[in-house]
Structure formats: C-alpha cells, structure tokens
Design a protein that fits this description.
Blueprint lengths: L10 H11 L3 E5 L6 H8 L3 E6 L3 E3 L2 E5 L13 E7 L3 H14 L2 E5 L11 E8 L2 E8 L8 H12 L1
Length: 159
C-alpha cells in the first residue's frame, strides 16, 4: 500500500541542498510515511535508499526493512550521506555509528532542539532557504576512531 503525508516546510530546499552537495547514493533513515524529500532527490537523479522498521512502499518508493541499532551495513555502504528527518536522540547516535563505519556525512533535520553530539564528527547548523538542519562531517582529528569506540561513547552520552 503506497502512502504519503502532507509536505514539510522547506522540503524542496532541503532536497536542493542535498542534490547540490552529494552525488550517487544517499540513505534516509526512519522514513516513516513522509517521502517528499526522497522523492525530490530521486527526481534529481540521486539513488535514494529508504529504511524503516517495516518494508513497504511509500509514494511509490521502496522502503527497506532495517534496524539502525543493528544495521544491515550493505544498505549504507557507498552512500556519501545518511540523513534523517525528525529522529529522536538515540536514533541520531546510532546513525553516527553507522556513518563512521562507512565514512559518510550525516544530515539531521530535528523536530525541535533535540540534536545529538556525534563522536568523531564536527557539527554545524545550516540554514538553506526555508530549511534548517545540522550537518555532521568527519572530525579530521578523530578520523581514525573506530565505530566501536563511537558506540561506547554514544552509550555514555545516553546515560
């Protein structure tokens, strides 16, 4: 069953930023039933992988079943960016672990002020048109940090 919900403020600008700065493949974690950004990216020629707890179609786009806390890394390998719209802190931290493992950047569009510090990444707020989001890039000083040590640090941050 294909499902979609109404548009998000700044969705076009968010998709425009991603399409302008990334080529090839990107992954959206926790797509839910909101696929506007993914649809815009696919229309601009990016290969978009969508993940969530259940496999299904959302607005004609296939959603892969995945648990970001125990990820199927083959869904993420080769992506230059992992992004998520309105994820809770614990999912942001898990995204950071996966991104460190595959050496991808992270983009988080938070619901409110719920923004994680991802070990091994530097974070900056980006205001692009009507879209505001946080972009995480690999911290050059911690580039050799392993995903395992990132996970241990993430666990400590959650306690």
């Amino acid at each position: 069953m294909a499902t979609s919900i109404s548009s998000m403020r700044g969705a076009e600008d968010l998709a425009g930023y991603i399409a302008r700065n990334y080529r090839g493949r990107v992954v959206e974690v926790g797509v839910g039933y909101y696929s506007q950004v993914a649809g815009l990216l696919a229309a601009q020629g990016l290969q978009v992988t969508l993940t969530d707890r259940e496999e299904r179609l959302v607005a004609g786009l296939k959603v892969e079943k995945d648990d970001i806390f125990s990820p199927r890394l083959e869904l993420y390998r080769g992506a230059g960016l992992i992004y998520s719209i309105r994820p809770p802190l614990e999912i942001q931290l898990a995204i950071g672990v996966v991104a460190a493992e595959i050496e991808a950047n992270v983009l988080i569009r938070p619901l409110m002020e719920e923004v994680a510090r991802l070990p091994g990444f530097s974070r900056r707020l980006v205001n692009w048109g009507r879209a505001s989001f946080y972009l995480y890039g690999r911290d050059k000083h911690n580039a050799t940090e392993t995903a395992g040590s990132s996970l241990r640090k993430a666990d400590k941050l959650m306690k």
